[in-house]
Design brief:
This protein is α+β, with helices and mostly antiparallel strands and 172 residues long. It has five helices and four strands. It has a four-stranded antiparallel sheet. Helix 3 crosses helix 4.
């Protein structure tokens, strides 16, 4: 009888430990998903702030009205994972339409959407970062001409090239 009771007790303890492990794993998974969602929201917010800054830079006085009329869809509103993955591309195309309705040309729209704010002018040196689709330029060509480049961290199908221009300031 004691052996049976001890086996039963061990079985119950094992089940309790397994249940506790499942609860803990579920908790950590929820925390991880929550952290990912917060990071994604922060990234999207930084993206929208960069777009606002670029819109002002290229002559749009109140970019908030464009964002109010064309908000970035939240992941909860989208139905499938494919829609969530395509959200960035869809929103960029949507904004292109809204910006063209404001009277901007295609070049200005591309500058607003692609300007990463990585241009600087320090002591006669200007560094410009250009973003282009990998399908339009060969990495072998960039290497052959010693043009520095890297893959875009946000969109893997794009390359970023760095161009350094040296010039003499004649205003001295």
């Amino acid at each position: 009888m004691e052996r049976h009771d001890e086996d039963l007790r061990n079985k119950v303890i094992k089940e309790l430990h397994e249940e506790e492990s499942r609860k803990q794993a579920s908790f950590w998974e929820m925390e991880y998903q929550k952290r990912l969602a917060e990071e994604k929201r922060a990234t999207e917010q930084a993206y929208l702030e960069r777009l606002k800054k670029n819109m002002r830079k290229y002559g749009i006085e109140e970019p908030e009205t464009i964002f109010a009329a064309h908000p970035l869809p939240r992941d909860e509103e989208l139905k499938s994972t494919h829609e969530i993955e395509e959200k960035s591309r869809w929103y960029r195309n949507h904004l292109k339409g809204a910006l063209s309705m404001q009277g901007l040309g295609r070049g200005q729209i591309d500058e607003i959407l692609n300007d990463l704010g990585e241009t600087m002018n320090i002591d006669g040196i200007e560094t410009t970062v250009t973003k282009m689709a990998e399908k339009w330029v060969s990495t072998r060509t960039l290497d052959a001409y010693d043009i520095p480049w890297r893959y875009d961290k946000v969109e893997a199908a794009y390359l970023l090239t760095v161009q350094i221009d040296y010039f003499v300031d004649t205003d001295i």
